[in-house]
């Protein structure tokens, strides 16, 4: 579950170990945010040995320190480690759930988004790419969520996600999953996602361009759409039909939609028959290895009487 993966992640960060945590001889234990410790006779000298929060932070940030995080660590890792120095009580126990507004759990083997995720009462961004999630229940998602990224999972059904979707969600990332049309198109409407600005459906198995567009047109705030990698993107009129059908789009498949392009495709949305007639596939071969170069075999000396051997090859594509 996501909760179990998060707890394992916290253990890996070592938030209770030196130089983090309450037991790290941290002078911030004596600041006004906590009750001062009672000093027993003979302990005055020991207190002088306690490190300042600034000195402990330097141990985390200096790349030559044995406690430094790797240079490629995430901002989330760095934030939690530094909070564990400056305010250790905030990452102790269940309080850590109140610290994060963004949670990134990538490639952690997560299969289930469980009810424990609701403890993140301020969470606005949830990144769960490259896990093993096939279904996700929206009742287990914080209502404060604005970004949900599920790229590179195995999601094939959106029904559970749309039962109680976060009302303020602005970005939904479902690229590289197993969505098939047209059964899932009905869940991509303004009734479920009234505030959606950005939608990534790339590299799924969506095939019904007309049906999908009829549903997406109800997303009044949609400005960014990614559909490349789906079979429907092979239709020759694919981009033009989308540009004309969704006049509020600013970016389609990571390419800006300009006024010239809108003018070029004006009226295409009223000709749906053009989007049904055929599909087009363009295949290009950049390099082939392991076969002799035919041109090299045919280079003979001038006046040579040797027989000419001609070599040729053909490539078969199976779809």
TrEMBL record:
Protein origin, superkingdom: Eukaryota
Cellular component, GO annotation: cytoplasm
Keyword Repeat appears in the UniProt entry: yes
InterPro entries: Leu-rich_rpt, LRR_dom_sf
TM region(s), chain numbering: none
Matching Gene3D superfamilies: Ribonuclease Inhibitor
UniProt entry keywords in alphabetical sequence: Leucine-rich repeat, Repeat
Record protein name field: LRC43 protein
Organism placement in taxonomy: Eukaryota, Metazoa, Chordata, Craniata, Vertebrata
């Amino acid at each position: 579950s996501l909760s179990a993966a998060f707890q394992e992640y916290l253990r890996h960060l070592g938030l209770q170990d030196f130089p983090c945590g309450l037991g790290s001889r941290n002078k911030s234990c004596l600041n006004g945010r906590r009750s001062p410790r009672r000093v027993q006779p003979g302990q005055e000298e020991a207190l002088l040995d306690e490190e300042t929060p600034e000195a402990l932070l330097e141990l985390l940030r200096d790349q030559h320190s044995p406690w430094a995080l790797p240079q490629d660590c995430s901002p989330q890792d760095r934030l939690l480690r530094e909070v564990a120095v400056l305010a250790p009580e905030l990452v102790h126990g269940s309080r850590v759930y109140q610290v994060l507004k963004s949670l990134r759990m990538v490639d952690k083997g997560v299969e289930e988004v469980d009810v424990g995720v609701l403890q993140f009462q301020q969470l606005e961004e949830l990144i769960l790419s490259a896990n093993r999630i096939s279904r996700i229940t929206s009742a287990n998602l914080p209502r404060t969520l604005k970004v949900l990224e599920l790229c590179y999972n195995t999601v094939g059904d959106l029904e559970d996600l749309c039962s109680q979707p976060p009302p303020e969600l602005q970005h939904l990332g479902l690229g590289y999953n197993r969505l098939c049309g047209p059964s899932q198109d009905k869940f991509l409407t303004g009734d479920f996602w009234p505030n959606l600005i950005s939608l990534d459906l790339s590299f799924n198995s969506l095939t019904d361009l007309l049906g999908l567009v009829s549903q997406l047109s109800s997303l009044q705030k949609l400005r960014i759409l990614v559909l490349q990698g789906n079979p429907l993107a092979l239709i020759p009129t694919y981009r033009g039909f989308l540009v004309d059908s969704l006049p509020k789009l600013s970016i389609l498949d990571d390419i800006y939609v300009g006024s010239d392009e809108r003018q070029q495709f004006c009226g295409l949305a009223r000709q749906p028959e053009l989007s049904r007639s055929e599909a087009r596939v363009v295949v290009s071969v950049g390099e082939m290895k392991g076969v002799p170069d035919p041109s090299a075999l045919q280079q003979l000396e001038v006046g040579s009487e040797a027989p000419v051997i001609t070599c040729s090859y053909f490539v078969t594509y199976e779809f």
